[in-house]
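Board work, copied verbatim: Large ribosomal subunit protein uL6 alpha-beta domain-containing protein
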Amino acid sequence: MSRVGKKLISIPDTVRVTAVDRTVNVEGPKGKLSWTHRAEITVAVDESAKTIAVTRQNDERLSRGLHGLTRSLIANMVEGCANGFTKALEVYGVGYSVAVQGNKVTLTVGYSHPVDLVIPAGVTVEVQTPQARGDTEPARFTVSGADKQAVGELAARLRKTRPPEPYKGKGVRYVGEHVRRKVGKAFAGGAV
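↓ predict structure ↓
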């Protein structure tokens, strides 16, 4: 039995969940999400106990794998519609900046051109500090929304535009991310 899949998902009071055929709909204060699961899995919503039970129809390898996955994805939908998900990022580097214009995020991160990325529907980007000031004060911004997958994907794409480099630490990184630093060529040879 899947240790993850057999756990019941509790539904907060602010969230409404319906399961029709193979489609699970979750609606809450932070948004509305819908997802269609595989036929090997059964989802039962208990309105009186405010829980969701995920079961599999057989013990085949595919069904066992989908059991825990389906439970985790539905739990993330409930959590996202109730509280939302947030990823905080920082941009280090002299002259590096971040700006939001309409449904686009513009990063100026040392290329000869600014990098524009489209913000998907249901995801918001908020800029706290637009301009980085050297190596001590980074530009800060957050990516938030109800869909955990969309928030994480946009944050990863933003970080990928200029990953932090190990010598000066310039680039886009998550808040709290440790960047392993290296010494430069002058110190590597033992010269004083």
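The chain has two domains: 9-82, 85-174.
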